[in-house]
Amino acid sequence: MFDIAIVGGGMVGAALAVATARAGMKVALLERQMPVTISEHSEVDLRVSAINRRSEQWLQDLGAWPQLMTSRLAPYATLRAFEGDAAPLDFTAAELGEDHLGHIIENLHIQQALWQQLPDTVERFCPVQLQGYQQMNDYASLQTDQGEIKARLLIAADGAQSQLKQLAGIGSQGWQYSQACLLVHVSTSYSALPMTWQQFTPQGPRAYLPLPGREASLVWYDDHLRIQQLAALPPQQLAQQIQQHFPAELGEFSVLKQGYFPLTRSHANQYVKGRLVLAGDAAHTINPLAGQGVNLGFADAQCLAALLIKQFAAGADLAAPALLAQYESERRKANLLMMSAMDVFYQVFSSKLTPLVQLRRLGLQVAAKAGPLKTYVGKYAAGLV
Ligand SMILES: Cc1cc2nc3c(=O)[nH]c(=O)nc-3n(C[C@H](O)[C@H](O)[C@H](O)COP(=O)(O)OP(=O)(O)OC[C@H]3O[C@@H](n4cnc5c(N)ncnc54)[C@H](O)[C@@H]3O)c2cc1C
């Protein structure tokens, strides 16, 4: 019998496995596909995340940060937002007395660093197929193609399409946004800038994220049809479209690869059901506009791990209803706040209504001068408050 069985060995599930196993819990980690091995020279994967300072600190605490290859990290010290020819709104690390605000890192790279930190005591089931799930009075069990796995507590960290959440009959509320986003990796004629920028246009934002070396990840938001058409273009034609629709500051570049993603918001109706608890994208998906998705997932994992470690040390039931209710209450509030803030942001910045366009330009100008408020927003985005 395991103390905990975690379904999903992505960034959130692997972080939870490291934290709980280190505290002495007997942990099973189930992952349906073997993690890809990343080396110094492998191609940069399309899926990257902006890792804020709070997540960075947690990865440090878990010992995973030093496992990351510095040559594959792209730090940024400025977050810039602008529209038209109005002056940009810059959040800088220097204003906060810091040397950076975060790093752009491939999801697979973070997952690998966390797997390298898994204690030997963690039993890995990978690749594994989940077939069913049951809850008993004092344990829960998973049916898999490798047999039955029993644990006091199950954690669903199996991403946005969580199978375990579906098996448990937990519903979600949410919607698909009217826009989709295209991710394009490009090689540039200059070394990555130590900044990320986002330009707002009536059709949707365009963003630049630095990647290591002379590469960058461009993000283009527009309606589904337009994004699908762009995603299907050969590299040279896509490059021409980018030249026409991205700011001239992008300079010379060539397209390396591209992929498109629908934008969905979903929030599970409950994070807890008996001996099952949800974390990360299994519990919530958020508009990636401000790159907060996995930062919320890591905050879930950090909160849940801290509660479980205390409970385990006291020799109490890891699935005690009061304990799991405390996790849900803390994290639901924080996640909802960030999701709602992103929605307001999305609505305001994707509007073509002239008064709103004027208002947001004005808003950016005012915000650029609003000292303490601006400092607070900068700290919030960097995960420093
Ligand atoms: C276009 C786009 C851009 C984004 N940009 C950012 C960003 O800049 N910053 C940011 O913080 N976030 C960003 N996100 C969100 C971020 O990618 C997710 O929040 C993050 O990947 C969630 O991590 P997770 O571990 O919860 O889930 P996942 O990364 O989805 O991992 C789930 C894991 O579970 C495994 N799994 C799935 N089903 C099963 C099963 N049945 N059995 C066993 N294993 C299973 C999967 O193989 C996977 O390894 C972005 C998302 C999108 C779509």
From TrEMBL:
Protein's name according to its UniProt entry: FAD-dependent oxidoreductase
Family of this protein: Belongs to the UbiH/COQ6 family.
Pathway the protein acts in: Cofactor biosynthesis; ubiquinone biosynthesis
InterPro entries linked to this entry: FAD-bd (IPR002938), FAD/NAD-bd_sf (IPR036188), UbiH/COQ6 (IPR010971), UbiH/COQ6_monooxygenase (IPR051205)
UniProt cross-references to Gene3D superfamilies, sorted A to Z: FAD/NAD(P)-binding domain
Domain FAD-binding: 3-334
Requisite cofactors: FAD
Signal peptide per UniProt: none
Domain of life: Bacteria
Keywords: FAD, Flavoprotein, Monooxygenase, Oxidoreductase
